[in-house]
Write a structure and sequence with these properties.
Elements lengths: L8 E2 L2 E9 L3 E8 L5 E7 L5 H11 L10 E5 L6 E5 L6 H8 L5 H20 L2 E2 L8 E3 L14 E3 L6 E2 L13 E2 L5 E2 L8 H4 L7 H16 L9 H4 L5 H10 L10 H8 L19 E3 L6 E3 L45
Antiparallel strand pairs: 1-2, 2-3, 3-4, 4-6, 5-6, 7-10, 8-9, 11-12, 13-14
Length: 344
């Protein structure tokens, strides 16, 4: 296929910058030639990848979920073939993790995993298993240097190119990550994040994605992938017990694993965490003070330190309707409009 360059036109969009790619495809940022609309366009660089591109477009077509990168247009028969998607202005989780090298904010790890599980719950309800959950396929619509303050709504799951309808066996595909089992079955995905049943080429259900989520959780909070029976807190002291429990119930054999994304999500909700210690007077009446952990300047009304992620209040209020984090002084939830008078 012909090499692409900035200024080339695909559909109604002019290519601006190559923002990602691998052995079989590229992702470009592009802008509509008339309207001020920015999108991401995935283009295969190998003819064998076209079928995978078509599979991805068909898999997420019609799924409207705030935590799933939306497909906008697809033409596998164009020259070049393309998939036009929502553009996420921010880093991948892999890029964000690389900035911290094992000191990723623990609170942010929980927020990001909740966003991923929200996306998977929507995909699973539509009968779609992702099969390649990993940090590279989790995008953060949030400044890279302020990940400690990220919200669930900023988490976007992408790359459903390996997605399969629930219950289907892995199909033979010519793409990066495909390999053969000893029994001659073809599997697809990234080996380091695969569930045992996926590695064996067995029929999959939603629990396979949960196993991958457990690995991502462990890697976020420890900076390394699990290799034995150690819990996250064994590697990084200070990891709360509820995260250990979520990891233990996801990174395990199939019959012991959490049953669905919603169950795993429930285990991460604030109400399921151990009680927090009594409030301590961290901040004075002055406009700013210092975080008790990293000693960076924080605002009087901050609930988390934006530098290290330390929680600065005994309990962080959440909207009772949509579970989004809110300020104790908020009258209405800025996400769903719920009257928060009861929190005052």
């Amino acid at each position: 296929m012909a090499s692409l360059k900035p200024g080339d036109r695909i559909n109604n969009y002019l290519l601006q910058e190559r923002v990602g790619g691998g052995s079989f495809g590229e992702v470009w940022r592009a802008k509509h030639h008339v309207f001020n609309e920015t999108v991401a366009i995935k283009v295969p660089t190998d003819p064998q990848y076209v079928r995978n591109l078509q599979r991805e477009g068909m898999a997420i077509h019609g799924i409207r979920h705030p935590n799933i990168v939306r497909a906008m247009d697809l033409d596998p028969y164009s020259d070049p073939p393309y998939l036009i998607m929502e553009f996420v202005d921010g880093p991948s989780l892999r890029q964000a993790m690389d900035d911290f090298k094992g000191t990723f904010p623990i609170h942010a790890a929980g927020v990001i995993l909740r966003g991923v599980l929200q996306a998977l719950a929507g995909a699973h309800e539509a009968g779609l298993i992702h099969r390649d959950i990993k940090p590279e396929n989790i995008l953060l619509e949030h400044p890279r240097d302020a990940v400690a303050s990220i919200r669930e709504q900023a988490v976007k799951v992408t790359d459903f190119g390996l997605g399969a309808v629930g219950g289907a066996t892995s199909q033979s595909m010519m793409q990066s990550g495909s390999m053969m089992t000893e029994g001659g079955k073809s599997i697809a995905g990234t080996l380091a994040y695969m569930s045992p049943e996926q590695k064996e080429g067995l029929p999959l259900d939603a629990r396979s994605d949960l196993y991958s989520c457990g690995i991502v959780l462990y890697e976020m909070v420890t900076g390394e992938r699990p290799t034995g029976t150690d819990l996250p807190s064994s590697v990084r002291p200070g990891v709360p017990a509820y995260l250990d429990d979520v990891f233990r119930r996801s990174y395990t054999r199939l019959d012991r694993r959490l049953s669905c994304a919603k169950e795993m999500l429930a285990a991460l909700l604030h109400d399921h965490r151990p009680p927090l210690p009594p409030a301590r007077p961290l901040l004075s009446r002055e406009a700013t003070s210092n975080c008790p952990v990293c000693h960076s300047a924080v605002e009087r009304n901050d609930q988390f330190c934006i530098h290290c992620g330390e929680q600065l209040v005994a309990a962080v209020p959440r909207c009772p309707a949509c579970q989004a984090f809110v300020q104790s002084t908020d009258r209405y939830c800025i996400f769903c409009g719920k009257d928060l008078g009861v929190l005052a």
